[in-house]
DNA sequence: GTAGGGTTAG
């Protein structure tokens, strides 16, 4: 059955008009189609397990991957598939699916699923959690006004902290930072308290877009409102300081968060490393990489290595570059092939054939040129 | 146990 349907799909694909008659392109596209179809089938199989359905990351990753590639029918396929499981009666599960449609920018599907909730979940909707998914979906679509005004009115619900946070995200993403910040006033007027999530998002957007002073204002506002910054809030501010090349202040802030008992995570270290890489400060880059390796609350990740490998090649030495590549080989996300090749080329320049071979072998790259 | 919150560079 499955074979027949995938054969049909292939046939349909062949019958579809092609813009590019180039046979090489056609074969590549067909391979890609088959690859994504495979992703869908695998995902459906995994969905059979309740343990899998409780996880959030694989859903997000699959939807992101498929929607980025423009395979919206595949997104629909895997999300509609979830309706057959008991989990669909759990409104939290269904709310997640709604948001996933939003993340794929499939608003119509998101709202339709929301409409179906009463009959799917066997419970009346609008328990505190459910109506937050449509605003979150609208935020993904950068529609702040609709998220915070039109939709709550339509659903006869009062916007809560999550609605506002979603709207803030949408406003920031469209560059309407003033609108985002002014939502804090509106929240205060309505007695809705912002929390660490609200501020981590706002701070991140402000600092990340180069609005350092506005970020600092928001940070002070957060303190005035008695909201305790968590690791992500601190990270946003550290990142803001790094962007402003205030490395000493950034380091001091990391020390402050440690003193408060907040454990720096990989993001924290990566931001500092990025700052010192941009400064060309070899000693501090080495220090913070060592600190990250020794940390009990963080570990190097792919972003660490993406930054460090080119820097090691250019400013430190091929030995460190090789060591970094080896250290990163065990990660699920791999370094780009071109980056690994740069390191192996450098090794060959120094006639270190065995090291180069070993490196390419680690990344299962052919080394016939060697 | 259950919502809304990060980066990379070519």
From TrEMBL:
PROSITE patterns: PPR
Gene3D superfamilies: Tetratricopeptide repeat domain (1.25.40.10)
PPR repeats mapped onto the chain: 160-194, 195-229, 230-264, 265-299
A single BP term in Gene Ontology: mitochondria-nucleus signaling pathway
Family matches, as InterPro entries: PPR_rpt (IPR002885), TPR-like_helical_dom_sf (IPR011990)
Keyword terms, alphabetized: Repeat
Family in the record: Belongs to the PPR family. P subfamily.
The protein's name: Pentatricopeptide repeat protein
């Amino acid at each position: 059955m499955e074979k027949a349907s995938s054969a049909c799909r292939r046939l349909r694909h062949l019958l579809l008009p092609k813009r590019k008659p180039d046979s090489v392109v056609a074969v590549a596209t067909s391979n890609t189609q088959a690859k994504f179809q495979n992703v869908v089938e695998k995902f459906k199989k995994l969905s059979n397990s309740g343990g899998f359905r409780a996880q959030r990351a694989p859903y997000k990753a699959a939807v992101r991957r498929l929607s980025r590639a423009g395979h919206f029918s595949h997104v629909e396929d895997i999300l509609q598939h979830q309706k057959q499981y008991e989990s669909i009666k759990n409104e939290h599960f269904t709310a997640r699916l709604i948001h996933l449609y939003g993340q794929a920018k499939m608003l119509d599907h998101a709202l339709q699923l929301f409409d179906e909730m009463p009959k799917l979940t066997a419970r009346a909707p609008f328990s505190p959690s459910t109506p937050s998914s449509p605003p979150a979906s609208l935020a993904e679509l950068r529609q702040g006004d609709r998220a915070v005004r039109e939709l709550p009115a339509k659903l006869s619900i009062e916007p809560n902290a999550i609605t506002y946070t979603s709207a803030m995200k949408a406003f920031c993403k469209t560059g309407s930072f003033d609108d985002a910040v002014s939502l804090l006033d509106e929240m205060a007027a309505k007695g809705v308290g912002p929390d660490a999530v609200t501020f981590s998002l706002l701070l991140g957007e402000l600092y990340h877009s180069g609005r350092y002073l506005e970020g600092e204002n928001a940070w002070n506002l957060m303190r005035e409102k008695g909201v305790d910054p968590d690791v992500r809030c601190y990270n946003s501010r550290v990142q803001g300081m790094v962007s402003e090349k205030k490395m000493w202040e950034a380091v001091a802030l990391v020390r402050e968060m440690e003193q408060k008992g907040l454990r720096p995570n990989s993001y924290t270290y990566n931001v500092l490393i990025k700052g010192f890489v941009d400064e060309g400060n070899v000693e501090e880059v080495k220090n913070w990489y060592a600190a990250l390796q020794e940390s009990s609350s963080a570990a190097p990740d792919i972003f660490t290595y993406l930054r460090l490998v080119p820097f090691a090649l250019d400013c430190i030495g091929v030995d460190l570059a090789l060591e970094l590549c080896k250290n990163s080989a065990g990660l699920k996300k791999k370094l780009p092939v071109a980056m690994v090749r740069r390191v192996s080329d450098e090794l060959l320049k120094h006639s270190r054939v065995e090291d180069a071979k070993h490196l390419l072998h680690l990344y299962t790259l052919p080394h016939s040129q060697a």
